[in-house]
Write a structure and sequence with these properties.
Elements lengths: L1 H11 L4 H8 L1 E6 L2 E2 L3 E3 L5 E2 L1 H13 L2 E6 L5 H6 L5 E7 L2 H6 E3 L4 E3 L1 E6 L9 H4 L5 E4 L4 H9 L4 E4 L6 H6 L5 E5 H8 L5 E3 L9 E8 L3 H16 L2 H11 L8 E3 L2 E3 L1 H9 L15
Parallel strand pairs: 1-5, 1-6, 10-11, 10-12
Antiparallel strand pairs: 2-3, 3-4, 6-14, 7-14, 8-14, 9-12, 9-13, 15-16
Helix pairs in contact: 11-12
Length: 289
């Protein structure tokens, strides 16, 4: 009788997404394609970035093919709830609101919000108070933590919603807007690729956040598997290699910057940021002239 009861219980228990993925032979990965260096959709339609390479490693570990499904920040959670993809990997910040509707993996990177401005405005926009003033325009992409941070902290300045996140740095550089509030990793990389732009105090971010991967709620089997996979990626050094390629290496062509009497390269500074569990003071000092 006990064996029959156990068999009946197993039969009615919902199967894990892990089982579905293995049976399908393919994992569907939701990604926005608009957030360098984590997820970028090239003009030829192919995706590249830190989390794109991580997704491919995930597929290899599962022994399945990887298919990328483009999504958007406003529709990120709903796409997961609707079953459009099995996991979302796109530089996703861990938030309590997201945890209400989905499961979040262990964190793999520490970040924080940072103003991206025109280099010519370095003396004008020194902090958040200087930004949040009438006549200032703050550009933001809809649906993500950039927008929620802006709407929670900007009250006097004008908020300009720009659908394409990739176009906002150029909107700052050309004067369409004055400021972009985004993650310090993105702000530093963009500023070092465009001499018109400047990241304000990226080593003293306005928030302290972490990135993780988003999975369906109430699926402990799949979540535990992804967390163990992340742990092994850390142990084998694969996470460090991804950081080297997509974060440190992204600035490898930039010239050296002076920090007192020392000369520190951008890759060294970014490597220091991403190799530790929290963003610490002094990481970005000397990064910008």
């Amino acid at each position: 009788m006990q064996a029959l009861a156990l068999a009946a219980l197993i039969a009615i228990l919902p199967s894990s997404h892990l089982d579905t993925i293995l049976e399908r032979g393919e994992i569907l990965v939701g990604t926005t394609g608009d957030y360098r260096p984590f997820s970028y959709r090239r003009p030829d339609g192919k995706f590249e970035g830190f989390d794109i390479d991580a997704a491919r490693q995930l597929g290899l570990s599962l022994g399945v093919e990887v298919r990328f499904v483009q999504t958007s920040w406003p529709g990120l959670e709903q796409g997961l709830l609707d079953g459009r993809y099995d996991i979302a990997m796109s530089g996703i910040t861990r938030t309590l609101d997201r945890q209400k509707v989905a499961s979040l993996s262990d964190p793999y990177l520490s970040i924080g919000k940072c103003p991206l401005i025109r280099r010519a405005d370095r003396e004008r926009f020194t902090d958040l108070d200087a930004i949040d003033r009438a006549g200032v325009r703050v550009g933001v992409n809809p649906g993500g933590t950039n927008e929620s941070f802006v709407r929670g902290h900007i009250h006097a300045a004008e908020i300009v919603v720009i659908e394409d996140n990739l176009s906002i740095p150029d909107a700052v550089a050309t004067g369409r807007v004055d400021v972009m509030l985004t993650d310090n990793v993105e702000a530093v990389l963009v500023a070092n690729q465009d001499s018109r732009l400047f990241a304000v105090l990226p080593d003293s971010p306005l928030s302290h956040d972490e990135l993780s991967y988003m999975l369906p709620a109430h699926d402990a089997t799949f979540l535990n598997w992804v967390n163990l996979w992340l742990h092994q990626m850390r142990l084998t050094g694969e996470l460090d290699r991804l950081r080297e390629r997509w974060i440190s290496g992204a600035a490898s062509s930039q010239s050296d910057y002076h920090h007192g009497s020392l000369e520190l390269s951008v890759p060294q500074l970014l490597r220091s940021l991403t190799a530790i569990p929290v963003v610490t003071q002094g990481v970005f000092k000397g990064l910008q002239k």
